[in-house]
Amino acid sequence: MSRISKIEYYMNIAKEISKRSTCFRARHGSIIVKDDQIISTGYNGAPRKTKDCFERGNCLRTELNIPSGQRYEMCRSVHAEQNAIINSARAGVSLLGGTMYLYSEKVVDDNDVQTIDAYPCFICKKMIINSGLDEVIVSRVDGKFKKHKIKDWADDWTKGDLLDDKETYSSGSSGNCCSSGNCCQK
């Protein structure tokens, strides 16, 4: 009998959390772990006590033909990463030194979803840097996981600019997650 790794364990939980998403386009789930304990979770959905896209029966960004990865201010949803950070703050729990796990999938139609390379958008990336997390581990289409050290993001932006960032949500992240040595097998 084999046992799943801790990364698989936490990523499977993030995948389940993504199923609470209220977005017609994509489902994202995020958990934050500190000292081997889940301290916060989040999925993409409308702010508390407001109508989400399912309740409204439409996606404003789709109606306006806004491509994925653009014009986030026009979206009704709060991102999974943002919600995990916000939920931690609501509970008064420190994120310092924690790890975020992020799972993402694209909604093809009512009966079909496809795993996509998970990666935070620039807005979430800035929040993650400021939150004090140490790393983010993201799911990949190939079934592997990629670790991102938050210090590396901040160092890269110190040397260049956030616009120089080679990995972005809308680009689908970089192709080969193992080239940096930060890839985790299942």
TrEMBL record:
Keyword set, alphabetical order: Hydrolase, Metal-binding, Zinc
Residue ranges constituting the CMP/dCMP-type deaminase domain according to the UniProt record: 5-161
UniProt key word Zinc: yes
Active site residues of this protein: 81 (proton donor)
Binding locations of Zn(2+): 79, 121, 124
Keyword set includes Membrane: no
GO cellular component: cytoplasm
InterPro entries: CMP_dCMP_dom, Cytidine_deaminase-like, dCMP_deaminase, dCMP_deaminase-rel, Deoxycytidylate_deaminase_dom
A molecular function (GO) term: zinc ion binding
Protein name as it appears in the record: CMP/dCMP-type deaminase domain-containing protein
Organism: Candidatus Falkowbacteria bacterium HGW-Falkowbacteria-1
